[in-house]
Amino acid sequence: MLRAPSTASAPTAAPSPLATPEPWDLVAAGYTAEALPYFERFSREALRLAELPEGPRIVDVAAGPGTLSLLAAAAGARVSAIDISERMAAEFRARAAAAGLAEAMDLRVGDGQALPFESAAYDGAFSMFGLMFFPDRLAGFREMRRLLRPGRRAIVSSWVPFDGPFGVLLAAAREMIPGLPLGGGKPPLASADEIRSEMAAAGFTGISVETADHALEAPSFDAFWGSMERTNAPLVLLKHRLGARWSEAAPRIRERVRATVGDGPLVIGRGAFLGVGVA
After folding, report:
1. 146: domain range?
2. Could you tell me if residue 179 is inside a domain?
3. Does 199 reside within a domain?
4. How wide is the angle at C-alpha 277 spanned by C-alphas 3 and 151, nearest 5°?
5. How far is CA 257 from CA 43, 212, 225, 234, 262, in A?
6. How far apart are CA 43 and CA 39, in angstroms?
7. Rounded-to-integer distance, Cα 142 and Cα 162, Å
8. Is residue 234 a part of any domain in this protein?
């Protein structure tokens, strides 16, 4: 059954704003309402790659609104899940209750770098676009490996770098919020080699990296911008931090991005890497 949030704390030193609850709390409702169907595509790929047995026990790290967890539970899995964001967890609980899957879930709010779950007890471990933002990714990978039964698989996803409208938007946001790991510089886990190296350092074997080529598209620039104002964590965080000043900054950012990418239709993202490692 769904449990009350634990008292585990978020990481104490987060070099990236995306490693804190704030941006994910802000986008939780919009993300669940609009972005979830796109993210489900990658979760289905991850579940396929995990090669789970019948009636598996799995762990979902940085679970968000339960994108992968609910798909797995609907197929018969028992799920332990954790997320740093209280509001994402609230969306998760509501979705699990509506689907009649609450009894299959053990959901906590806490730190994915110090998991409150038992060792060597799980048939699969997943982190979909979450571990990539951890201040200490090695700790995150090691914790996932600790939970797995010998021979079972961990799947971690990260975005394939794409210098399109999403990248232009994040570059603009990054200029105003120092420390964002996207939109300029080197994105986290941005290559197959980097994923292999970090999983190997955490003790995984049989490592492979697949690319899931699911494009994210928008019919027009206006549709893209509207969705990003509701679901894009860096942009929503910027909007929140600027407060009343957002009404002045938003048109400048919007026009800068539109001038670069055009009026649409637009391809926003090209897909994701799925790193697979065996415990």
Report:
1. 17-161+186-215+271-278
2. no
3. yes
4. 80
5. 30, 26, 9, 15, 8
6. 7
7. 28
8. no
- The verdict on residue 28 lying in a domain is yes
* Domain tally, the chain: 1
Using one digit for the tens of pLDDT, what is the confidence trace for 170-226? 777 677 666 555 444 567 899 999 999 999 999 999 999 999 988 888 899 999 899
Q: What is the pLDDT of residues 107-121, one digit of tens each?
A: 999 999 999 999 999
**Residue 153: its H or E element:** strand 148-159
pLDDT digits (tens, 9 = 90+) for 155-170: 999 998 876 777 777 7
- Tally the residues of the chain: 279
Least confidently predicted of 19-23, 251-255, 275-279: 251-255
The CATH number of the domain holding residue 128 is 3.40.50.150
* Sequential DSSP letters for 197-244: HHHHHTT-EEEEEEEE---EEESSHHHHHHHHHHH-HHHHHHHHHHGG
